[in-house]
Amino acid sequence: MPIDLKNVSFSYNTGTKLEKKALENVSMSIGRGEFVLIGGEIGSGKSTLIRHFNGLLKPTSGQVIVEGMQAHNRQVKTKVGILFQFPQNQLFSKTVYEDVAFGPSNIGIKDEELEKRVIKALDMAGVREELHKTSPFNLSGGEMRLAAIAGVLAMKPDYLVLDEPLSGLDPENQKSLILKLKKLHQEGISIIIVSHRISELLSFADRIFLMENGKITFDGRTEEYVNSLPSTLPQIAALMRELRLKGIDVRDDIFTVEDAFDEIIRVQKERMRQDS
Ligand SMILES: Nc1ncnc2c1ncn2[C@@H]1O[C@H](COP(=O)(O)OP(=O)(O)O)[C@@H](O)[C@H]1O
Ligand SMILES: [Mg+2]
After folding, report:
1. Between 92 and 111, where is the model more confident?
2. Which of 101, 151, 164, 203 has the highest count of CB atoms within 10 angstroms of its CB?
């Protein structure tokens, strides 16, 4: 069952001089098993939007229904796990292990079952064993993000929502995080990634939403999105198109440096094979 938003509007500081409309009449539906990107400029309302998915914020008007329940229902909190932009704000215990155990022990899980859950979550997130007993604040930025992901996974969410998960990571950690998310998706968790730069992520997602000024301005499949914006085609896709025009037979549905690299190597090998 999906996350369904019906005509959701939200304002910060309603009824004061500082009132700020951050979402305006948003309707959207995200199904189980999808890999979704939510893009849009900084300030367009992305972070405000995802805080509605598990009831952290309540709409000023409209409805959020998750798996048939109102989003502020307690059960929804475990179904929809959110990883915030700054993982250091999500970590607070003495050790990484205790941090990951915090959520499940709060819902009454203990002893062996708790240990099993925590170890599994740390493993799924890819937190190395030697880090389990260290302080989360001794971790690097990339490791901290993985520890925070483990904390969310320990609640066994159906949906994993990540707010700007690539920011602050070097390219290598970005790549390894994306591959990890792809793997979690294959294991059946729906992935929702919020990013103000979606071009690197396009080849992983089934579906794209774009936000502008608190409204959804695009909702469609990735191919549709790429086709709809020829002028702002990601540079890498433009490069592949250029190569095709020069008679080099590369695929043109490539949006990331990594895929372009693999594809160019493939074509080159093919040519060498034909030459020999
Ligand atoms: N706590 C808050 N109080 C008042 N205004 C806020 C608050 N958080 C965000 N806003 C405003 O709401 C709008 C949407 O912000 P946000 O959802 O954070 O956008 P994004 O995540 O796309 O950068 C922006 O204009 C922002 O300034
Ligand atoms: Mg944000």
Report:
1. 111
2. 151
Phi, psi of 220 (to 5 degrees): -170, 180
Nearest Cα residue to atom 2 of ligand 1: 12
Q: Supply the CATH classification number for the domain 3-230.
A: 3.40.50.300
Q: Can you tell me the mean pLDDT for 137-160?
A: 93
Q: Is residue 91 pLDDT above 90, yes or no?
A: no
- Predicted confidence at residue 231, as pLDDT, reads 59
User: Which residues neighbour 200 within 8 Å (Cβ) at sequence distance 6 or greater?
Assistant: 166, 174, 178, 255, 256, 257
Query: 């500082």: which residue's tokens?
Result: 18
pLDDT at 222 exceeding the cut of 70: yes
Q: Is the CB of 165 under 6 A from ligand 1?
A: no
Give the C-alpha separation, 157 to 83, whole Å.
12
For the ranges 74-83, 154-163, 242-251, 263-272, which has the lowest average pLDDT?
A: 242-251
Q: How far apart are CA 221 and CA 211, in angstroms?
A: 15
pLDDT of residue 233: 63
Query: Is 44 close to ligand 1, i.e. is its CB under 6 Å away?
Result: yes
Centre of ligand 1 to C-alpha 46, Å, is: 8
Whole-number Å distance, alpha carbon 182 to ligand 1 midpoint, is 29
Instruction: Kindly state if the Cβ of 45 falls inside 6 Å of ligand 1.
Output: yes
Q: What's the CA-to-centroid distance between 48 and ligand 1, angstroms?
A: 6
Does residue 42's CB lie within 6 angstroms of at least one atom of ligand 1? yes
pLDDT of residue 232: 56
Q: How far apart are CA 264 and CA 43, in angstroms?
A: 37
